[in-house]
Design brief:
Immunoglobulin-like; five-stranded mixed beta sheet; 926 residues; 12% helix; 22-stranded antiparallel beta barrel; 13 helices
């Protein structure tokens, strides 16, 4: 509450200290119509060029606003051509807008951080406006992104989807930046933007822009793989009440049973402006449904030969069963794993997502506007990372204060999360498994002895040491070891589940995070001050304040706080009668733990005519390790996870004084053979100690990318849009983990550089050594190639056809596969859409076909062992019907119409069809 108070003080200060300076004002009035139907256009935007003054037309197509004359009015509306009208008097205006091919030449902002034609952007960009989002055959705005070329969509659950571009995909993708009104959608504790889980109501989205590929030169380290920018609707331009109710079903004919489940979404938006000076808006949406089930029970145990894996394997490790990861090799028996629990027993499939937003806008003058906005998100989602995690009642709050003019903005925002009910389902299964184990006398043992005791019972039963138990039978031995096992649905099971999902660290499976992030940034466009050059400059400061109460970081006493800052400069120039546009930009970023990083970008766009544009660009990108990568200090029993910031390992000697895990394994095996042959202990150590290798693990540093891109965008006969591109990228310094083993007291090498025998002796015992998993980088280099092509055709009678295809190739070169993150993207993927928003004056439709080929998915959930994501094809469709008298639209649609259960990441759930009906009431109280 203190932080919120400071925000309000700052906001009030802005209003109080800024004096409005107004020229002589004239009230302009007019009517906007469709010249073909002569019908008034409701909700058309009327803005004054070069100022922030503007309004929208009312239910009769009329507008009025106060401004100085002469002025230039900019008239725009979704689906109509943008017009500029020079006004010299206060005479009433009558303006007709023509329907447009706006999809073929839209105005975009994110490619260069200034307004420009989408045909002449220096890099590849995709855009969807509010009309396209509304007409998309998708249940949600986020899902509609799946039709854009180059997009990889990964579904962790019903309320959680992630997007990525150009490979190196992961479910928790920290390489891709998501902004909403300029505010980072990243969770500080999770370390990545949580996709559809956080954000604003779909009703408040004005447009989305997507840049595939590096955008670090303008947006900093988080935009390593690309950028998704969402712009919400201004309460000045979009007034009135919108109410939407959506109902549907999923899990139709689900092979896992249970029958169809209901799905619902309720959304509301209200905005009001007063005297074109003050405006506010309120938004809320609530989604509720049954999550998709993760039920892949493939045996992935790495210590069992592939031909012996399966249901009959006593050492099986099933993908979506948790607790069976705990395994041991029993003498004379072989590898045996504990009996685990199905995911459905340790998670919650009743999920929801609540999003609320409020904003106030005050126009201090016709060139200056102040904004305060707060976004609140809370929900439950299943998320796949190194485990399947239940993000239960996860809260995410954003606050923004902004002062903006026609050519600048200053923005400050804070992001806070509250995770006190989330938990790790794999860990939860293991903890429940340790609550009921009995020794051979029938007594329940302490939790710390449970696993060893269970294996002791199993071995005793299998070897015929228990009266009445048939020997040499794995099923019988497992039944005996499982005596007393708490079963799902019982009071004992639910009690254990509740207890250990709320205990943190080594005591339980709970996830505690009260982390925050603060960000201040600004941009100024100097172009109005130059007649021959376009120049923009900007910068930012970011501050992370982490709080996990010692469960993830060593932050009970030593607070984990990270500062970083950056600044960029961009200049562009048009030559040869504006046929050639040259642009260069450079950005410098500094994190307190790393050396400064400079990321340049250079581009050229050649336009021989107004409809044909060829672009080439050189781009660079970098990614700072997340705060978790830098500062995690988590003892997970067998080892300590240790982040790579130098200050995080002070006094532990993990980076400075340790052996590589591989060399310790080789030394241990040779030593064991030697002592088994009768060699005395000291001689065996001395003989094989030189097999030990001192580790040389560098502290963590940013990842790097260099990319070259060439593309063409052209329009033929104002009916066909072509967009093709090719890119080549080179990557270095990939973030990896490396396991090392440190002797507790001795130095690993002597003064002469040889291995210390005392250190070798300590390494042989788990009580005199410590194992660490260090966060570091690999020196290996890899490259990628990719191409995409798309066509949009505006056909007769309002029909529209779009098609695109994307090809991606990963070249590992001479790199060690263990040092490179998984590419995780299909080689080919395609989309085809066919639609007509005005099939009749009341009926519209849209249909989309998606296909992608099979590929191997590598993820931390399976310890980076591959799992097949099969090729799949699916169809989305919707039909809409307008009810003009009720000012409403009925939409009937289906995501995955054929109900094909598809998996988008190995270990994540199979996603089937979602069938829905929505009713939207618009233009109310306008």
């Amino acid at each position: 509450m203190k932080k919120q108070f400071y925000f309000l003080i700052f906001f009030t200060y802005i209003l109080a200290m800024t004096s409005p300076v107004q020229a002589q004002q004239t009230r302009l009035t007019g009517t906007i119509t469709d010249p073909e139907t002569h019908q008034p256009l409701v909700g058309a935007s009327v803005a004054v060029k070069g100022k922030i003054t503007g309004t929208v037309t009312n239910g009769n197509g009329k507008f009025e606003l106060s401004t100085s004359v002469p002025s230039t009015l900019v008239i725009s509306m979704i689906g109509y051509e943008r017009q500029e009208i020079y006004v010299q008097s206060a005479d009433p205006l009558t303006i007709g807008l023509k329907e447009t091919t706006a999809d073929l030449n839209q105005v975009v902002v994110s490619a260069s951080r200034i307004e420009e034609s989408s045909l002449r952007t220096p890099v590849t960009i995709e855009k969807m406006d509010a009309r396209a989002i509304q007409q998309a055959p998708a249940a949600t705005m986020f899902e509609s992104l799946n039709s854009l070329k180059g997009v990889d969509m990964v579904t962790s659950g019903l309320t959680l989807r992630q997007v990525n571009t150009r490979g190196f995909n992961s479910i928790g993708n920290s390489r891709f930046l998501q902004l909403t009104d300029g505010v980072d959608n990243q969770s500080a504790g999770l370390g990545f933007p949580a996709g559809s889980f956080f954000g604003v109501s779909d009703l408040d989205v004005e447009s989305i822009e997507l840049i595939p590929g590096a955008a670090s030169a303008l947006y900093g380290p988080a935009a390593f793989n690309g950028l998704l920018m969402t712009k919400t609707k201004s309460p000045f331009d979009y007034q009135g009440l919108i109410v939407q109710q959506k109902i549907g079903i999923n899990h139709v004919n689900d092979p896992n049973g249970g029958g169809a489940k209901p799905f619902s979404e309720t959304a509301i938006r209200y905005a009001k402006a007063f005297n074109n000076r003050f405006a506010f808006k309120l938004n809320a949406s609530y989604i509720k449904g049954t999550d998709w089930y993760a039920t892949d029970y493939t045996d992935i145990d790495p210590n069992t030969p592939s031909e012996k894996r399966g249901a009959a394997n006593p050492g099986k490790n099933s993908l979506n069963i948790y607790g069976d990861e705990v395994a041991s090799t029993l003498p004379g028996i072989g590898r045996v794993s504990r009996t685990g629990y199905y995911e459905k027993d340790v998670t919650t499939y009743d999920v929801y997502s609540f999003k609320a937003n409020a904003a106030v806008h005050y126009r201090i003058s016709d060139k200056l506007e102040a904004i305060y906005q707060i976004n609140f998100n809370q929900g439950t989602a299943n998320y796949t990372s190194s485990s399947r995690n239940m993000l239960r009642d996860f809260r995410f709050t954003q606050q923004r204060v902004e002062l903006k003019g026609a050519n600048f903005f200053v923005r400050a925002y804070a992001v806070a999360e509250n995770s006190q009910n989330a938990y790790n389902t794999r860990s939860l299964g293991q903890f429940i498994n340790r609550t009921w184990v009995k020794d051979l006398s029938g007594n329940v043992v302490p939790i710390g002895k449970a696993d060893a005791t269970w294996f002791e019972r199993y071995g005793a039963a299998y070897n015929g040491k228990i009266n009445g138990i048939a020997p040499q039978n794995h099923d019988v031995a497992r039944t005996f070891a499982d005596d007393g096992r708490v079963l799902p649905g019982t009071a004992a099971f639910e009690s254990a589940k509740d207890k250990y999902s709320h205990l943190y660290g080594l005591e339980g499976a709970g996830v505690l995070s009260l982390c925050k992030m603060y960000h201040v940034e600004g941009l100024y466009d100097f172009t109005p001050h130059f007649s021959w050059l376009s120049v923009q400059a900007g910068g930012n400061i970011r501050y992370y304040d982490m709080n996990t109460n010692g469960t993830l970081f060593d932050d009970k006493i030593n607070k984990v706080r990270v500062k970083e800052y950056g600044a960029f400069l961009q200049a562009s120039k048009t030559l040869f009668e504006e046929k050639l546009k040259l642009m260069v930009s450079g950005r410098f970023d500094k994190n307190q733990n790393f050396a400064g990083n400079f990321t340049p970008r250079a581009s050229a766009v050649y336009s021989p005519t107004n409809n044909h544009h060829i672009r080439v660009s050189y781009q660079t990108g970098f990614r700072n390790p997340t705060v978790v990568d830098q500062y995690i200090k988590l003892n997970v029993g067998p080892l300590i996870l240790l982040g790579g910031a130098p200050s995080n390992s002070v006094g532990l000697n993990a980076y400075e004084n340790s052996f590589t895990a591989a060399s310790v394994g080789a030394f241990g095996a040779a030593f064991g053979q030697e002592t088994a042959a009768g060699t005395p202990f000291p001689q065996a150590v001395a003989k094989h100690k030189d097999k030990l290798v001192k580790s040389n693990v560098p502290y963590i540093r940013p990842e790097q990318l260099q990319a070259f891109e060439i593309g063409y965008k052209g329009v033929l006969n104002n009916k066909l849009l072509f967009d093709v591109s090719y890119y080549h990228g080179k990557y270095t310094n990939f973030l990896i983990n490396q396991v090392v083993i440190r002797p507790n007291t001795a130095n690993v090498v002597l003064a002469d550089g040889t291995v210390n025998p005392a250190a070798a002796q300590e390494i042989l015992s788990t009580t005199t050594r410590q194992t660490f998993q260090l966060y570091t980088n690999a020196a290996d280099k890899v490259s990628t190639n990719g191409a995409s092509g798309g066509i949009t055709a505006l056909l007769a009678k309002g029909y529209r056809l779009g098609a695109n295809a994307t090809w991606a190739q990963f070249n590992i070169l001479d790199a060690n596969p263990n040092n490179v993150p998984a590419f995780n993207t299909p080689k080919w993927k395609t989309n085809v859409t066919f639609s007509n928003a005005r099939l009749t004056d009341k009926v519209g439709f849209s249909i989309a076909w998606h296909w992608q080929d099979a590929f191997q998915w590598y993820g931390t959930f399976t310890e980076n062992r591959p799992g097949l994501v099969p090729a799949y094809s699916l169809i989305d469709a919707q039909v809409s019907y307008k009810l003009p008298k009720l000012k409403s639209i009925v939409k009937v649609g289906a995501s995955n119409l054929g109900n094909n259960y598809v998996v988008q990441a190995f270990g994540s759930p199979a996603v089937g069809g979602l069938y829905y009906v929505s009713l939207t009431f618009d233009e109310l109280l306008r």
